[in-house]
Amino acid sequence: MDSLVVFSHLRWNFVYQRPQHVLSRIAAQCPVIFIEEPIRSATADRLEIIAAAPNVEVWRPHVRGSGPAADMTCKAAMQRMVAQGLHQRKIENYWTWFYTSMALPFAEALEPEGIIYDCMDELSMFKGAPPELLEQENVLFKMADIVFTGGRSLYNAKRGRHSNVHCFPSSVDALHFRPGVADHPLQADLLRPRLGYCGVIDERIDIGLIDGIASMRPDWQIIMVGPTAKIDDADLPRRENIHWLGQQSYADLPAFINGWDVCLLPFALNDATRFISPTKTLEYMACGKPCVSTAIRDVVEPYGHVVPICADAAGFVQACHDIMARTAGQTFAYRDRVDEIVGNTSWDATAAEMIELIAELQAAREPRPVLHVPITSTAPDLLHAPTSSLTAASRGMLSGDRCFDLL
Fold first, then answer.
1. Where is 83: in which H helix or E strand?
2. Could you tell me which of 51, 113, 171, 184 has the fewest CB atoms within 10 Å of its CB?
3. Average pLDDT of adjacent 10-residue blocks, the chain of 407 residues
4. Contact, 182 vs 254, CB < 8 A?
């Protein structure tokens, strides 16, 4: 394809995850334009353009007004800015790629050669998800030429809704997450043993589980790395052995993980975690670190033979104790097993397979009709969240608002 125009509910410079991994690699084959959800502005409409990565431009629309980001005025402004941006870049032949069906109205006037839906999460089950999301997703399934899913559970849930669905679970950049990286200064003075988690801290994390582990073993240090979203900081357990280090850069994550004795996957078992495929599972493994998880299906089924699965704080404490009591031979055997797992996947391979599938469609592509997606002026605030919810904004890591926070 000549270009790829992506509509996302996530901001490029938030947590570095599936969209950035996949699209930065696809950008080696064609230009990628990553269009974020609109930011309501008190000034004139404008399109902020950011050179985010080689051959990747982030378009961040600022739309005048204070009303819902899904109203007719915002829709018209978004369509106008996207059309003008494509015209100025002289982009005529392109595919559209959606991470959220709620962006369909903004692409209504476009004429892509093909449509891709990368369904990385079941957004309809996330806290604050608009009720219209499922209706819009039904429209997107009808329009899409190809659908990717972010894990096996999600694939099983979606494969009956489209004739061309492909499963691409979370993968890993093993060269980035490698053993032996020096300890991060923010945790270097902490005593051992250390248990750690990295990722977004939201309704998917079992906060009570973290508190329970910390209370049962006050001599263990629990390190939580990641931004807080959709939960009140006041609700986070505060103990001397729990360390909330906030959002850190993707570049620094290996330094944190390599300094932990056991890695945690402390997910709550709820609607929001029913279909997740945690990227951090393989990232922990690539660093050669053992981990313990709750019964997340996309952890249990592929990795249950190397990842202890526990239901409560007592189970986590026992599993972590057993891991730290392993002999040198047992540790080497574990690392051999996870090295084999990590060696069988990579984001490079994922992106290459996606490109190949798209190329097969591209070879026989007919011009697409103009998209027509209904939207009413009375629609609720579908894409806009209060600025106060953006914990990273004050540090310049994220500007504007976002709809959902995902791993």
1. helix 72-88
2. 51
3. 92 94 97 94 89 96 74 83 93 95 92 95 84 91 96 94 96 96 97 97 96 98 95 92 97 98 97 94 98 97 97 98 97 96 97 96 70 44 31 33 31
4. no
Domain with CATH 3.40.50.2000 in the chain: 4-171+348-395, 194-343
Angle value at C-alpha 291, between 288 and 292, nearest 5 degrees? 170
Residue indicated by tokens 């990747």 = 56
Contact residues for 88 (Cβ-Cβ < 8 A; gap 6+): none
The CATH number of 4-171+348-395 is 3.40.50.2000
**322: DSSP letter:** H
One of 1.25.40.10, 3.40.50.720, 3.40.50.2000, 3.20.20.80 is the CATH number of 194-343, namely 3.40.50.2000
Residue given tokens 């357990």 in the structure block: 237
User: Residue 256 and residue 248: Cα distance in Å, rounded?
Assistant: 10
- Is cis: bond before 218, omega within 30 of 0? no
The residue length of the chain stands at 407
- CB burial of residue 127 (10 Å; 0-12, 13-18, 19+): middle
Euclidean distance between CA atoms 4 and 367, whole angstroms = 15
Q: How far apart are the first and last CA of the chain?
A: 28
CA dist., res. 141 & res. 316, Å (int)? 40
- CA-CA-CA-CA dihedral for 170, 393, 260, 217, to nearest 10: -110
Residues 6+ apart with CB under 8 A from 47: 59, 60, 61, 62, 81, 84, 85
